[in-house]
Amino acid sequence: MTTLLLATTGGHLAQLHGLSTRLPADGATVWVTHANEQSVSLLAEQDVEFVPYVGVRSVRGVLRCLPTAHRLWRRRKITRAVSTGSAIALGYLPYLAARGVECHYIESATRVSGPSLTGRVLQWVPGVHLYTQHPRWADRRWRYGGSEFDRYQPVAAARRLGERVRVVVTVGSATDFPFRRLIMPLVQLLAPNGPLHQATGRDVEVLWQTGDTPVDDLRIQPRPFLPARELSAALAEADIVVCHAGTGSALAVLGAGRLPLLVPRLRRYGEAVDDHQRELAAELSRRGLAVCREADEITVDDLLATLDRSVRSIPNPAPFNLRS
To answer: What Rg value do the Cα atoms of the chain yield, rounded?
Structure first.
């Protein structure tokens, strides 16, 4: 028996990687995802099949998955498939379900109030079991199985600054959506001798993870994409972290024990397909796991407010139970 673990890169892959440790064991495992700095480093010790990227709402990209889905089913003898999306799930789960494979789709924790487009399509596919990570919208189709954010609790433990203020700014790994609107105000706030320096009396050191956001005209030293381990190490050493309100970035910051300042991408600026990041930011703020601000509202006080709390990881989270 072999389980296929399927996700696009970014937050979808980060969630599945965490959830995989909570799934019931069922023989061997093979991962299917796209190759980039995150996936190559995160899955370095796993059995992985790297496949071409499936773009957002790309019908052609979904259809190109079918030959690979057939090959994996036949050669790897796939008996179970689990996916956190996004579009790549449409290229594999319907085909595998039709072949009698036990298929499970876990909606992203980003979807606080209802399923994504991928989820809305898959709920009509026979043989695909559906799960939400938010109990408020569970119903007869969508079962609540737990959430990756249940791993974390806020801790009222103020952190002291050292000789320098170390800041990480990350916009995640989304290749289709730049987020210059987040970078611009931070360039001013974090500049040498800028507002944060003046407020703390310390030099400010910034790691700028900018993805595909165009920043050549800005006076920063960008790192478009970082390997997962390098980013994790930088987050663990950071005093302040500002990131887009994506699930993968939020999980990475929380896993490093830091309280993030989350800034949601918005559809009206071409930064996302919808405003699900605003809902996620509000949810994590409600849990006490983030400070939430719009890009044009960020102040030095907001940056310093993230030092008032730390985040604790809960050992041995509850299993994620799959339907049989």
So the answer is: 20
What is the Cα 292 distance to its own chain's centre?
Answer: 16
Domains along the sequence of the chain with CATH: 2-146 (3.40.50.2000), 155-313 (3.40.50.2000)
- Non-local (6+) Cβ contacts of 282 within 8 A are 112, 292
Residue 234: helix, strand or coil by DSSP? helix
Whole-model pTM?
0.87
> Phi, psi at residue 43, to the nearest 5°?
-110, 25
Task: Mention every residue, 6+ apart, whose C-beta is less than 8 A from residue 48.
Answer: 30, 31, 32, 33, 39
188-237 per-position pLDDT tens digit? 999 999 999 999 999 999 999 999 899 999 999 999 988 888 999 999 99
CA distance 6 to 89: 7
Q: How far is CA 137 from its chain centroid?
A: 21
Judge contact between 82 and 106, C-beta under 8 A: yes
C-alpha distance from residue 30 to each of 4, 46, 128, 269 (Å):
5, 7, 19, 38
